[in-house]
Amino acid sequence: MEKSKLEQIEKELLNLCEKEFSKDEIIKVKRAIDFAKNAHKDVLRQSGEPYIIHPLSVALKVSKLHLDHQTVIAALLHDTVEDTTTTLVDLKKNFGPDVASLVESVTKLSNIKIKKSWFPLIRSETIEIPEFERQVETLRKMLIAMSRDVRVIFIKLADKLHNLETLSHLPSEKRERIAKEAIEIYAPIAGRLGMGEWRGNLEDLSFPFVHEEAYKKLRSLAVPEIKEREKYLTKITKELKVLLDKNDINSTINFRAKKWYSLYRKLLKYNNDMEKVYDLIAIRVIVESVEDCYAVLGLIHSVWRPLVGRIKDYVAIPKPNGYQSIHTTVFADQGRIIEFQIRTEKMHHQAEFGIASHWIYAEGKTAKLPKKNDLKWIDDFYKMQKKISSPEELVKSLRMDLFEDRIFVFTPQGDVKDLPFGATPVDFAYYVHTDLGNKCAGSKINGKIATLDTILQNGDIVEIIKRENAKPHADWLKFTKTDIARSQIKKITHRQL
Ligand code: MN
After folding, report:
1. Which pLDDT tens digit goes with each residue over 9-48?
2. Any idea where the domains of the chain sit in the sequence?
3. How far is ligand 1, taken at its centre, from the CA of residue 366, in Å?
4. 153 CA distance to ligand 1 centroid (A)?
5. 399 class by beta-carbon count within 10 Å (0-12 exposed, 13-18 middle, 19+ buried)
6. How many angstroms does the Cα of residue 165 sit away from the middle of ligand 1?
């Protein structure tokens, strides 16, 4: 029984590899499978399954991202250094420096030791690390690893996913901690990398272990509603298909219910009023080109009346994590309200796999790392965290800068800058350049003079009035949101005292 499950995963993995990799590369993958099997020989997981099921499953998840063969090999070997007698030198000799360094980074991520200078009250490295400190350190390590090689994060997230899938086999006191960590740290990171599918899976696998009652309640509330809406959406989908065919637009139309944890969060916001969750099930229209996206939007609006303020064009202005789609919410008959999401195949792939999707669409056949620019924000955060002195501040600024909702604003030249929600012209100035922040004397928003504490809105065009003798004020600390601005203001105003 177990044997066949193992064979099945291995077969699926090799099938995928055969589609993507050269003959040489496949031989290396097969060698890594044998190596891992041998290293984890006779070891069982808590579930009673042979251990090798785990690295194989992690490698399978990673291979579905269509990355390079080294990442797949490193996923197969990711637990060998930590859990077996294998050393990094062995890996380097057998699979080269690239694989060895990936495994080394993944191994480091799972060894959370804390920096003593930050937590002077903790004397021993062996005592249980308090949750907050643990989270800070996990976050920091993830950031550092990401800034060096984002492939490490894909392996780590796949590792988390598979561990969550088999969480019920662990003792109950461990379950909650692991699930909570997945929701609070790993899922937001996946989200920030634009990996919607993985983010949703990390959350939904953890949800029942963290809020068991709420999960059960939500399901009993939502399942009948979903069934009811599905019937109606089947009808709408057919009507739309006929309409698009008539207009010579090739399309794939489907619908899928919102993920559980995401629905849970939304309902908390809307006082548990399911009626207000228009995207409980959204209709997804996938077309061949950007032009078709807009054509479909027009056709939908010609049949159903849109709700004011609910048309969102993330094609023209993508979300900071790269997400692109056009959303519109319309009144259908019998007072029903439906959300449509329109996108191309490429945008769809980006929406599910985020930054990882850059490999597949790289020119030519050889896989390429994402462009430097795609990773710039990771680099910025990495540099920033080195300057921050206390762990409380690090968590605060990370939550703010990395995970909270962000807005996009423009420079007068039309460059897009993304800032955390609540940011002001001073934050903007420092984000563009330290010098611009330090010499900021006033600002214009959309061409009109605005005070420096004005809260910026999505799409604002922000112009900073610079004066050579201007200086930052300590007062600015009352309204600035970003760490980049606050640390500069503190530095300079302290000097003036
Ligand atoms: Mn593992």
Report:
1. 999 999 999 998 999 999 999 999 999 999 999 999 988 8
2. 2-209, 213-360, 404-496
3. 28
4. 13
5. middle
6. 12
Helix 196-210 vs helix 345-353: crossing angle, to nearest 10: 40
Q: Write out pLDDT tens, residues 74-115.
A: 999 999 998 899 999 999 999 999 999 999 989 888 765 544
| Residue 84, Cβ density class (10 Å: 0-12 exposed, 13-18 middle, ≥19 buried) | middle
Collapsing DSSP to helix, strand or coil, 490 comes out as: helix
- CATH code of the region 2-209: 1.10.3210.10
| 0.70 exceeded by pTM | yes
Ion ligand 1 residue ranges (Cβ < 5 Å): 79, 159
Q: Which two tokens stand for residue 241?
A: 């298909």
Phi and psi torsions of 328, nearest 5°: -145, 145
Helix H segments across 172-273?
Answer: 172-181, 187-192, 196-210, 212-246, 260-269
Mean pLDDT of the chain: 84
Calpha distance 476→469 (Å, rounded): 17
Bridge-partner residues for 331, per DSSP? 305, 337
Report residue 241's pLDDT band, with 50, 70 and 90 as the boundaries.
very high
Round to whole Å and give the CA distance between 57 and 111: 22
Residues 6+ apart with CB under 8 A from 284: 253, 254, 255, 256, 340, 341, 343, 348
Radius of gyration (C-alpha) of the chain in whole angstroms: 25
Residues identified as active-site: 82-83
Ligand 1 centroid to residue 79 C-alpha, Å: 5
Backbone angles phi and psi of 305, in degrees to 5: -80, 125
Cβ partners under 8 Å of residue 156, min gap 6: 106, 109, 142, 145, 186
Fold category of 404-496 in CATH: Ubiquitin-like (UB roll) (3.10.20)
CATH number of 213-360: 3.30.460.10
